[in-house]
Design brief:
The chain has helices at residues 331-337, 346-468, 470-475, and strands at 4-9, 13-14, 25-29, 34-38, 49-53, 58-61, 65-66, 76-80, 83-90, 96-104, 109-113, 126-131, 134-142, 147-156, 168-169, 173-177, 180-181, 187-188, 191-194, 198-202, 205-206, 216-220, 225-229, 232-233, 239-240, 243-248, 251-259, 264-273, 278-280, 284-286, 296-300, 308-312, 324-328. The protein has 482 residues and is α+β, with helices and mostly antiparallel strands. It starts with a strand and ends in a 7-residue tail after the last helix.
C-alpha cells in the first residue's frame, strides 16, 4: 500500500509571481517541463499567462502575440503537443463564453478556432480526451440565465490549419452526441476523468436538492450509454468545485471543494478505487493544505516523482496564497521524511511536553473560536432564513394585493360598461321624449286649427240648414241677417 506526504513548495526565484486567484487553469507541458497558469479571478477576470519552470522552481509571465483570449475564469484548458487550448469560461460581465483558442507553446502565438456551429456557452464544465485530436465536453452552467447543462459534445480539431497565417483558423468541428441510459442531471463544478474507454463524473452542483450530486456516473464511449455507479466505503459528502486527479490506473484522488451541506470550503482528501468503487481516507503526512475550492490541480510523472499531484490557489473565505502543495506518492521520497525512531533524551521529553501543552492550549483556543464561529454562522443562517421567510410573506402579500386589484379593476370595468350602456339608454329615452313632445305640440296645433275651422264654419252650417231644411222653410219665414 502506498504512503502519501504533502509538501509545500515555494518558488526559489523569478521576477514575476502570479497574484492569488481562483477559477484558473493549471496545465502540465511535459515536453518543456513547465506548468502553465491561465486566467482566473484576481480582482477581476485575468488574461495573464504564467509559466512555472519545474526544473528551477521559478515563475515568469509569458509574453505572447497573435489573437489572445479575452479575460475569463472557470474555463477548461488542455495540452496536445505542441498546442495549448482554452475553451469557454465566464467573462468579465458574468456571462458564459463559448469560444475556442489555441496557443503554440513553441512560438507563443495565439489563434482563434473558427467554427460554424457551437454548443451552449458555458463555464464550470469539463473537457476530456475521447479520441486522438478529439475532446468531449460535458455539463456546466450557462449564464446569465443560470441553465445547468448535461449535454455532450465532441470537438474534433484534426483538420485545423494550425500553420495558417490567419488569426482565426478553420477546421475544427463540433458534434452533439445523443447518449442513452441513466443520464445524469445538469450540473456544474463537477469532476470528470477519462477512464477505461469512458468518462467518469463525480459531484457538482445540481438544481434538484433532493438528489445526491455525489453520485458517480460512467459513460461508455463505445455505446454512448450512461450508468449510475454505486460506491462503497467513506462516501464523500455532496460537493462542487473540487479537484480530481488520477494517481494510477486503479485510483483517483479527490481533494477539497465546496461542501453543499455545510456551505463551507473543505480540505478533505479521499481516494476512489476504480476496481470496486470503494472510497477511503488515506493517511497523509506533511503540510496539510488549507480548505479551498475553485483551485487547480494536475498530475505529474517526472522529476523523481511518481504521479505527484500539484494543488494551486483557490478560495476559502478569501484568496489563498499561490504556494504549491504537492502530494507525493513515491516511497523513496516519503521515507526521507520519516526519521528512524530513537530513544528521546530528557531535554527532548521536556520540549515535547511543553510543545504538547502549548498545542493543547492552542487546540482549546481554536475550538472555542470554532464554536464562536459556528454560533455566528448559525445566527447568520437563522437571519437568512427569517429574511427569506419575510421575502416569501412579502411576495405572497404582493400576490394577494395584485389579485384584489385585478378583481377591483374587473369590477370597475364592468361598472363602467354598465354605466356606458345606461347612458346610451338615457340618451335614447331623452330623444324619444323630445320626439314625443314635438309630436304633441304638432298635434295640439292641428287641433287648434281644426277648432278654429269648426267655429268659423258653424254660421255657414246654420245658414245652409235654414235654406235647405224644408221643415224650417214651412214653419218659419226665411229671414236674413244680410
Amino acid at each position: 500500500m502506498s504512503s502519501f506526504i504533502w509538501r509545500k513548495e515555494k518558488p526559489s526565484g523569478g521576477l514575476h509571481f502570479p497574484a492569488s486567484r481562483e477559477g484558473h487553469s493549471l496545465t502540465y507541458i511535459h515536453n518543456a517541463s513547465i506548468l502553465l497558469i491561465f486566467g482566473g479571478v484576481v480582482s477581476n477576470k485575468s488574461t495573464d499567462l504564467y509559466v512555472y519552470d519545474l526544473t528551477h522552481n521559478q515563475w515568469k509571465i509569458q509574453q505572447t502575440t497573435g489573437r489572445p483570449p479575452s479575460a475569463r475564469s472557470y474555463h477548461s484548458a488542455f495540452y496536445d503537443e505542441p498546442y495549448f487550448f482554452i475553451y469557454a469560461g465566464q467573462g468579465d460581465r458574468g456571462r458564459s463564453l463559448g469560444d475556442f483558442y489555441v496557443l503554440n507553446a513553441k512560438t507563443w502565438v495565439w489563434k482563434k478556432l473558427f467554427m460554424l456551429e457551437t454548443p451552449h456557452f458555458r463555464h464550470h464544465h469539463s473537457i476530456n480526451d475521447m479520441r486522438i485530436q478529439e475532446k468531449l465536453v460535458f455539463g456546466g452552467i450557462c449564464s446569465p440565465d443560470g441553465t445547468l447543462l448535461n449535454d455532450l459534445w465532441t470537438v474534433n480539431y484534426s483538420n485545423v490549419a494550425f500553420g495558417s497565417n490567419l488569426s482565426e483558423i478553420p477546421g475544427a468541428v463540433w458534434t452533439q452526441l445523443k447518449p442513452k441510459g441513466e443520464i445524469p442531471e445538469g450540473r456544474c463544478g463537477h469532476n470528470a476523468i477519462t477512464l477505461n474507454r469512458g468518462l467518469m463524473i463525480y459531484g457538482g452542483k445540481i438544481a434538484n436538492e433532493k438528489e445526491d450530486p455525489a453520485d458517480l456516473f460512467y459513460l461508455n464511449y463505445d455505446n454512448l450509454t450512461w450508468k449510475k455507479i454505486t460506491s462503497l466505503g467513506k462516501i464523500p459528502s455532496p460537493r462542487a468545485y473540487a479537484t480530481m486527479a488520477q494517481l494510477d490506473p486503479d485510483r483517483l484522488f479527490l481533494f477539497g471543494g465546496y461542501d453543499l451541506k455545510t456551505n463551507r470550503a473543505i480540505n478533505e482528501s479521499l481516494i476512489l478505487s476504480t476496481k470496486d468503487y470503494y472510497w477511503s481516507v488515506p493517511f497523509i503526512a506533511g503540510y496539510q493544505p488549507q480548505p479551498r475550492y475553485n483551485h487547480a490541480a494536475c498530475a505529474i510523472s517526472s522529476f523523481g516523482r511518481e504521479n505527484a499531484i500539484f494543488i494551486l490557489g483557490g478560495i476559502e473565505n478569501s484568496f489563498l496564497q499561490m504556494d504549491f502543495y504537492i502530494l507525493d506518492t513515491q516511497e523513496s521520497l516519503i521515507g526521507a521524511e520519516w526519521e528512524e525512531a530513537k530513544e528521546p533524551s530528557e531535554m527532548d521529553k521536556l520540549t515535547s511536553d511543553i510543545a504538547s501543552a502549548t498545542i493543547l492550549d492552542q487546540k482549546k483556543y481554536m475550538h472555542s473560536l470554532d464554536q464562536q464561529f459556528n454560533q455566528e454562522r448559525l445566527a447568520c443562517l437563522q437571519l437568512d432564513q427569517e429574511i427569506k421567510a419575510l421575502e416569501e410573506d412579502l411576495k405572497n402579500a404582493n400576490q394577494v394585493i395584485e389579485q384584489e386589484m385585478a378583481k377591483q379593476v374587473a369590477v370597475m370595468k364592468d361598472v363602467d360598461e354598465e354605466y356606458t350602456k345606461n347612458m346610451k339608454l338615457v340618451e335614447s329615452l331623452f330623444l324619444l321624449v323630445k320626439t314625443e313632445q314635438l309630436l304633441t305640440r304638432e298635434q295640439e296645433n292641428k287641433i287648434g286649427l281644426l277648432e278654429n275651422f269648426i267655429r268659423d264654419s258653424h254660421g255657414c252650417v246654420i245658414a245652409f240648414d235654414k235654406v235647405f231644411n224644408p221643415t224650417t222653410m214651412q214653419t218659419k219665414p226665411l229671414t236674413s241677417n244680410y
